[in-house]
Amino acid sequence: MTVAIPATTHATFEIKSANLPLVALLLKSTDLAALSRELASRFGDIPDFFDQDAMMIDLSPLQATASANEDIDFPALISLLGSYQLVPITVKGGSPAQMAAALQAGLLPAPDSHLVNSRPAPAPAGQPAPAAPASPLGALVIDRPLRSGQQVYARGRDLVVLAMVNAGAEVIADGHIHVYAPLRGKAMAGARGNTEARIFSLALEAELLSIAGVYRTSENPLPPDVAGKPTQVRLLPGADGDKLVMSVLQ
Question: Where is the Septum formation inhibitor MinC C-terminal domain (predicted)?
Fold first, then answer.
């Protein structure tokens, strides 16, 4: 005989699995003063770059250095990251002493978490490469000139600028940046680590170019064969680290 037992449904709550998107901080030094300076240099003039984003602190890079067993002031680290609207919640990859200190500071262990590889792996021989996932958002289009001191950030998408980006202005995108006019200010593509992002301009005269954190400033003049010309900027991986490569658009 089969007996059907009615399911009990709680009226006040349900518990389900959920995925939480995280940004990751790969900590390469326990020197928080140096970290503070570098954060200020990169994000100090972009106060709304992060928006209470949950963060994982990855201590794995420390383990191959002399800092493997050094103490970390986690309350100070959490406070520093919080000043940039980041919310550290998990930690992984540290020594037993470092992990114990992190847990004491309120961070949760996440030993099974892994970083998302922003550069897709090559497809096996004989198989077609997987299609790139569609962007959830269309490009942000700006049709006015950007003056010195102005800043535009295309969060989670590409940025298209149809007018001049003057010196002192900043254009930032998590995806590609297209400037259909002279680019004389700062351009930062792949701002959240997308190494496939590119920068395009009809007249490249930029003060600063950056893709996924790899940057070039006006202290190093643009090569004569691309300066002022229609140019594409991309990131080229190499054994000695990623490099910015510029090529004239035909």
Answer: 141-233
CATH of the domain at 29: 3.30.70.260
d(CA 74, CA 13): 34
Q: Provide the strand spans (E) within the chain.
A: 23-26, 53-58, 86-92, 108-109, 140-142, 151-154, 159-161, 170-173, 177-183, 186-189, 199-204, 208-211, 214-217, 231-236, 243-248
Do 148 and 50 lie in one domain? The reply is no
Dist CA 229 CA 250 (whole Å): 10
Q: What is the CATH classification number for the domain harbouring 160?
A: 2.160.20.70
CB 214 within 8 A of CB 243: yes
Which is more confident, 219 or 78? 78
Strand order in the sheet with 159-161: 140-142, 159-161, 177-183, 199-204, 231-236, 243-248
Averaged pLDDT score across all residues of the chain: 84
Residue 162 lies in a domain: yes
Which tokens sit at 177? 């940046």
Mean pLDDT of 95-101: 93
The predicted model scores a pTM of 0.61
Q: How many domains does the chain have?
A: 2
Residue that wins the pLDDT comparison between 121 and 226? 226
Q: 96 and 154 share a domain?
A: no
